[in-house]
Amino acid sequence: MAKENQNEPLIDSSKLIFGIGQVQKITGVSGRQLRYWEEQRYITPIAQQKGTQRQYSFRTLFLIFHIQRYLSQGFTLQTAVEKANEFEKQMPILRTFVKAQLHGVEVAEDRSVIDFGFKDDTHQQRVYGIVEGDKTYFEIKNVDD
Fold first, then answer.
1. 20 or 12: which carries more pLDDT confidence?
2. All domains in the chain, ordered by first residue
């Protein structure tokens, strides 16, 4: 039986490339805005051959999405870019933590449970993340229970 490699990404995101039209549809940001953001060096398209449409990496698409999200919350463009860049810096840390701590997910119709593993090195308690509709919280349970 093949063993799953936990360190391998599901998708090589460096191979996910989006044309400017796709980016506009996904993010709701106009081509004019995207070109302005490029001029201001907030975003960078993938190097392209002359005469071809602009293309963006998955990382840049993610950045565009978050800039737009912060703009829609009322932030200025400069602040939105700063917040989006800060969020992008946090993502590898969050991925590392979740990858190391995630021990399983049980999905049910009314309640889902995320197993984050043992609370500490004593292995006496486990930490669970609970999702009930829009409500989320943690539960800590003794292993004996």
1. 20
2. 13-99 (1.10.1660.10), 102-142 (no CATH)
